[in-house]
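Tokens for chain A. Residues wanted.
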């Protein structure tokens, strides 16, 4: 298959440090250009990463006729407008999570996708990692019985007023940045949408963004609970509980690409999971797998890992959790697409 030619919309850390290096290690992707609003920044990034072209504006990159697909890692509030501009120019778009600021914004992308015929997808790289594909298959096959609970935590510590994640007007806060992951995983594992959700949210008194969230998602078949934080000790873990067993994902969201990863499958015969089966997965780069999957979708040999309909539903849960934080009540996600 001919490699898909990619342009990178912005010089965000995730692009420079993770996504572009991963793309360059694949057979299906060829990064040919990067853009920044600062020409020198674009030049420096291109030189350090061996990218042939550097543009001093996003518009110039989008107008490049040699580029087939755009990776959009811009700040959250720029995801939808620049993804739409790229799609209108005939470019396929892989956009960082969260794909929008609201579910309604995400719905706008569906209309653009359907009108232009390009691929547009949200970059939840975990949906391509073998450990999560295995966990999904274990749940679907009934290995742990009937699924009743998905529970997890994701946190890091960063309190910097200059960081875009600390700016409410840019779509900052822990719920948008990392809470989107356990929400997506819970919906994926249950294969359904929550009927109602509730959240307790603590705001940073100075920055005005959420820094600690605890939430419950009620599904017809069970529940999902999670906490996430932007000002706590770094930690992550996910547990999937069924009537006959549980699955523990040791490093669920950013497993290292240079060593093996593992999940534990426990039937509860011994305390503290002493009898758990440990399943090892060879080292893989989930950012590379994500890019390959999207490139395959562009070539028509696969589908995107996270379709926009899924993204709209995920954003609808986030919207409902925000409402719950204000009303202090259960809220129903507006799941219409």
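Reply:
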């Amino acid at each position: 298959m001919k490699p898909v030619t990619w342009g990178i919309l912005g010089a965000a850390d995730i692009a420079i440090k993770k996504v572009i290096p991963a793309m360059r290690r694949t057979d299906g992707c060829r990064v040919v250009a990067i853009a920044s609003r600062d020409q020198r920044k674009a030049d420096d990034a291109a030189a350090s990463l061996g990218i042939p072209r550097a543009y001093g504006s996003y518009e110039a990159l989008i107008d490049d006729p040699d580029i087939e697909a755009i990776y959009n890692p811009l700040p959250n509030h720029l995801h939808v407008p620049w993804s739409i501009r790229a799609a209108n120019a005939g470019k396929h778009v892989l956009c960082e999570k969260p794909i929008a600021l609201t579910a309604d914004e995400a719905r706008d992308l569906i209309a653009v996708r359907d009108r232009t015929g390009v691929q547009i997808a949200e970059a939840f790289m975990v949906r391509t990692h073998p450990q999560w594909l295995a966990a999904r298959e274990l749940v679907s096959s009934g290995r742990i019985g009937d699924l009743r609970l998905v529970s997890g935590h994701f946190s890091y510590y960063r309190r910097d007023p200059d960081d875009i994640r600390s700016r409410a007007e840019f779509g900052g806060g822990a719920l948008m940045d990392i809470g989107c992951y356990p929400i997506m995983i819970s919906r994926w594992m249950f294969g359904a949408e929550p009927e109602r959700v509730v959240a307790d949210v603590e705001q940073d008194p100075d920055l005005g963004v959420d820094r600690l969230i605890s939430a419950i998602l009620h599904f017809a078949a069970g529940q999902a609970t999670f906490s996430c934080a932007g000002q706590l000790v770094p930690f992550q873990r996910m547990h999937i509980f069924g009537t006959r067993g549980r699955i523990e994902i040791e490093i669920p969201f950013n497993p290292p690409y240079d060593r093996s990863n593992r999940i534990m499958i426990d039937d509860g015969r011994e305390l503290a999971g002493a009898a758990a089966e440990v399943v090892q997965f060879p080292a893989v780069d989930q950012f590379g797998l994500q890019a390959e999957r999207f490139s395959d979708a562009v070539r028509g040999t696969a589908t995107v890992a996270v379709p926009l309909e899924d993204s709209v539903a995920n954003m609808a849960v986030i919207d409902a959790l925000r409402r719950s934080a204000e009303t202090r009540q259960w809220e129903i996600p507006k799941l219409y697409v």
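The longest helix spans residues 308-327. The domain at 130-283 is CATH 3.30.360.10 (Dihydrodipicolinate Reductase; domain 2).
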